[in-house]
Specification:
The chain is mostly helical. It has 4 helices and no strands.
Length: 71
């Protein structure tokens, strides 16, 4: 998760808005598929993992960055 967040926040992307959009969309799609897989295959374990404060504190900035990119 931290690597995903760091890649979206990369300073290199500030110079190229098209590339920044592509990275943001790819990251969001990857996250959506990973969450879907986790919640359909191992629901109880996924609920415990995704409810962990370390995971939510890492995901929150990513979701803020991603949502601000499209507003």
């Amino acid at each position: 998760m931290t690597q995903l967040v760091d890649s979206v926040r990369s300073a290199k992307l500030e110079k190229n808005t098209g590339r920044k959009s592509a990275v943001s969309i790819n990251a969001a799609v990857a996250l959506a598929f990973a969450l879907r897989q986790a919640t359909t295959s191992h629901f109880r374990h996924a609920r415990e993992t995704l409810g962990n404060s370390q995971v939510t504190s890492t995901l929150a900035p990513f979701l803020k960055v991603w949502s601000s990119s499209f507003s």
